[in-house]
Amino acid sequence: MAPDSRGTAPGTRPAVRVLVVGGGYVGMYTALRLQRALRQRLRSGDAEITVVTPEPYMTYQPFLPEAAAGSISPRHVVVPLRRVLRDCKVVIGEVEHVDHDKRTATVTTLATGEDGTGAVGIAYDEIVLAPGSVARTLPVPGLAEFGIGFKTVEEAIGLRNHVIEQLDIASATRDPEVRDAALTFVFVGGGYAGVEALAELEDMARYASRYYHNILPSDLRWILVEASGRILPEVGPAMGRYVVGELRGRNIDVRLETRLDSCERRIVQLSDGSRFPARTLVWTAGVRPSPLLAATGLPLTGRGRLRCTAALRVEGVEHAWSAGDAAAVPDRASAEPGAETAPNAQHAVRQAKVLAQNILASLAGQPLTDYRHRSAGSVASLGLHKGVAQVHGRAVKGYPAWLIHRMYHLSRVPTFNRKARVLAEWTLAGLFKREIVSLGSLEHPRAEFEIAAGADPDPRRPGGAGDRARPGDGPSPDDGPPTSSG
């Protein structure tokens, strides 16, 4: 029998099979560290690491706001997994079910529906569950039809295109109501994602307005809706109040202790009684664990996260590990009883290091290490040259905080290749003007050809030829989601 690319003869079982579910922070960094430690065994066929992920790349989410604003190319916000994990098997697909008693995961791939062979069974000895999280939504009327998420690089690109095209609509229409709706941008959620996305896009749109003969920066209406009484709780109460003042100083309407009640027919209705048309509604009101976790049969918390020990092993279960958004990990650095580590990137990256070490220790029969990390602080960008930071208990704001934000995330983005590309783009951005081009047709590139070929595209398909906004179009009950094509 001929050996495969790893030198393993067909039918030969590797001594160690590790299955990593998810290609995010935890998944990629855990697989990368295991790859480095087991490189010789991987190449000889004595070990196997399989990474199952829906996308062939890891997204560095802290850079999504800058990608949406055009400060960074979207290509440089993602890390190609096949290039980084050369000695691992990367499977593009989704885990549908895990039978941990049999050490088997059921996976659907891109080929599942094409070849008719059905789902694939992947056997493992150790499993790392790091599927990440999904947007946490509420049953708000109209949200599913008109809301825009902000969790993936595709959503960041789509939102940038959408905002610029709303300026095009407002500039061309002769209907004051359509103009007002196009120039109204509502963001729901006052955490990092919502505040940074709003601040960066407001900065970009205000700059872009100078190139429209009939749009002034003051014509744009930006609204941040937050259900609690504060925003950016991670930077502390004092800095949170500073951010509110900073945003309001830029004519951004910050509404605390306010909820979104409805957005049907693109009419936004808030719990404070406000009601107004808006063609842009961005939902960033939190996340929830991946639904996959419920299909594993492993112990979960009331919030749907895996119960884990401080050593990042699933509680009461051998050979199952987790970290990041999917795991409820005891916070050994906190004095508060029962405290858990926050599901953020700072913890995920550090947990991945300990997780990989503990898997190797377990394979070698050595004692495990508990995860313990005391946060050094938090940073947030509020647009070009503006930011806030809490570093070792000291509050920093303005340009210094923005610089700290960039330096910190440049140091954390994976691979030297990405660091160099991001730094080069920042340098060039300081020398040249912003790009304000919308490429909304990228989302549905066949629309023009379908028309030319005589096809009849679904007029309600988001971004389809029939869904293109035209000057004078008003809200309609048949309108599709507010995609980049307006």
List the helices and strands and how they pair.
Layout: E1 16-21, H1 25-37, H2 39-44, E2 47-53, E3 57-59, H3 64-69, E4 78-80, H4 81-84, E5 89-99, E6 104-109, H5 112-115, E7 120-123, E8 126-129, E9 133-135, H6 143-146, H7 153-172, H8 176-182, E10 184-188, H9 192-208, E11 221-225, H10 237-249, E12 252-255, E13 260-262, E14 267-270, E15 275-277, E16 280-283, E17 287-289, E18 306-307, E19 320-322, E20 327-328, H11 345-363, E21 377-381, E22 387-391, E23 394-397, H12 399-412, H13 416-431, H14 447-452
Parallel strand pairs: 1-2, 1-8, 2-5, 8-19, 10-11, 10-16, 11-12, 18-20
Antiparallel strand pairs: 3-4, 5-6, 6-7, 9-17, 13-14, 14-15, 21-22, 22-23
Helix pairs in contact: 1-11, 7-8
How many structurally independent domains?
A: 2
CATH topology of the largest domain: the name is FAD/NAD(P)-binding domain
What assembly state would you assign to the polypeptide chains in this entry?
Answer: single chain
Helicity level:
25-40%
Domain FAD/NAD(P)-binding: 17-348
InterPro entries: FAD/NAD-bd_sf, FAD/NAD-binding_dom, NDH-2
GO molecular function: NADH dehydrogenase activity
Biased composition (Basic and acidic residues): 457-471
Question: Can you walk through the features of this model?
Answer:
Helix 1 (25-37) packs parallel to helix 11. The chain has 14 helices and 23 strands. Helix content is 31%, strand content 20%. The relative contact order is 0.14. The strands form 7 sheets. It has a 7-stranded mixed sheet. Strands 12-11-10-16 form a 4-stranded parallel sheet. The chain has a 3-stranded antiparallel sheet with strand order 13-14-15. It is of the alpha/beta class and 486 residues long. The longest helix is centred in the middle third of the chain and has 20 residues, at 153-172. It is globular, with a radius of gyration of 24 Å. The protein has 2 domains: 16-133 and 288-363, FAD/NAD(P)-binding domain, CATH 3.50.50; 143-285 and 419-467, 3-Layer(bba) Sandwich (FAD/NAD(P)-binding domain), CATH 3.50.50.100. Residues 1-8 and 462-486 have low confidence and may be disordered. Keywords: FAD, Flavoprotein, NAD, Oxidoreductase. It holds the Pfam family Pyr_redox_2. Residues 17-348 form the FAD/NAD(P)-binding domain. This is NAD(P)/FAD-dependent oxidoreductase. Residues 472-486 have a biased composition (Low complexity).
